[in-house]
Write a structure and sequence with these properties.
Elements lengths: L1 H28 L2 H29 L7 H23 L5 H16 L16 H32 L10 H35 L7 H21 L5 H25 L7
Length: 269
C-alpha cells in the first residue's frame, strides 16, 4: 500500500504539472476550452493527491503527519484544496497559472524527502493535539500559498501584457488575497501556535522551547499579524498586500526547509 501511495503521488505531480502548462496556455490564448481542460486536469490531480494521502493513512494506520515528507504532501494537498475552493467561489481559472507552480514547488521539496512509512508512532506524536496542530497548520499554510499565488497574478496584471484581458480585475484579486490571509491567520493561530503549544507541553513537558521550528512559526505568525493589521488600517492594499503575501510564502518555505538543516525537537516533521 505504501508503494501505491508513492505511485499516486507521482501521478498527481505530473498532472499538476500538465495543468500548469494548460493554465499558461489559457492565459496566453484566452480560449475557454484551454481553461476548462486545465481545471479538469487539476481536479483529477487533486483526486489522485487525495488518494495518495488515503493510501498512506491506510498503510500506516495513522494520519499522514508523522514525517516531513508526509507533512509536505499534506500541506500541498491543502494548497490544492484552497485553490479548488477559490475556483468554485470566484470562477477565475487564470489564477492557476500562479498557484499551480507554487504547489509544484512544495511537491518537489516533498519528493526530495525520505518516504519511508512506519506504523509505529514515537510517543511524542501519540496525541490528538498533534493531529489538530498539524491539520490546522497545513490548512493555514495552504491558504497563505494561495494568497501568494494570487498576489503574483495581481502584480502580473498591473504590469500588463497580452494576458491582461484574461486575468481577474485588480479589485477581485486583492479581495482574494485578503480573504485567503484572513482565513489562514486564525487557523495558523489556533493550530500552529495554541494547539502546538499544548502538544509541546504533552510531548516535552513545556509549552515553548525556542526550537527552530517554533521560532519560525512565531516569526510567520507575527508577520501575518502585521500584514492583517496594516491591511485593516488601509495601509497595505493593492501592490503592497500582494508583495506581502509573496513574502509570507517565502517565510513559510524557509521555515520548512530550514527544519531540514537546523534539527531540533521538530526534526522529524
Amino acid at each position: 500500500m505504501a508503494h501505491a501511495d508513492t505511485q499516486l503521488f507521482w501521478l498527481a505531480f505530473w498532472m499538476y504539472l500538465v495543468s500548469f502548462v494548460l493554465f499558461t496556455v489559457f492565459s496566453a490564448v484566452k480560449r475557454r476550452g484551454a481553461g476548462l481542460a486545465a481545471t479538469a486536469v487539476f481536479a483529477a490531480a487533486f483526486v489522485c493527491h487525495t488518494g495518495a494521502l488515503a493510501a498512506r493513512w491506510i498503510a500506516t494506520t495513522h494520519p499522514p503527519f508523522s514525517t516531513m515528507y508526509e507533512y509536505a504532501v499534506t500541506m500541498s494537498w491543502a494548497v490544492a484544496l484552497s485553490f479548488v475552493v477559490v475556483l468554485a467561489r470566484f470562477r477565475r481559472m487564470a489564477l492557476g497559472v500562479a498557484v499551480s507552480p507554487l504547489l509544484i514547488v512544495v511537491l518537489v521539496v516533498a519528493s526530495l524527502l525520505p518516504k519511508e512509512a512506519s506504523k509505529q508512532l514515537m510517543p511524542a506524536l501519540q496525541s490528538y493535539w498533534f493531529y489538530i496542530h498539524v491539520t490546522l497548520a497545513a490548512l493555514a499554510e495552504g491558504a497563505f500559498i494561495v494568497a501568494a499565488g494570487t498576489g503574483i497574478v495581481y502584480l502580473a496584471r498591473r504590469k500588463g501584457g497580452g494576458a491582461k484581458d484574461v486575468l481577474p480585475a485588480n479589485d477581485l484579486l486583492e479581495e482574494i488575497v485578503a480573504r485567503a490571509i484572513r482565513i489562514g491567520y486564525p487557523l495558523f493561530t489556533i493550530g500552529a501556535m495554541f494547539a502546538g503549544a499544548i502538544w509541546a507541553q504533552y510531548a516535552w513537558g513545556r509549552f515553548w522551547s525556542w526550537d527552530p521550528k517554533e521560532t519560525g512559526s512565531l516569526v510567520i505568525w507575527l508577520y501575518y499579524t502585521l500584514v492583517l493589521h496594516e491591511n485593516m488600517r488601509g495601509r497595505w492594499r493593492g501592490k503592497k498586500l500582494a508583495v506581502a503575501a509573496i513574502v509570507g510564502f517565502a517565510l513559510a518555505l524557509l521555515s520548512f526547509v530550514g527544519n531540514l538543516f537546523l534539527g531540533g525537537l521538530h526534526a522529524y516533521i
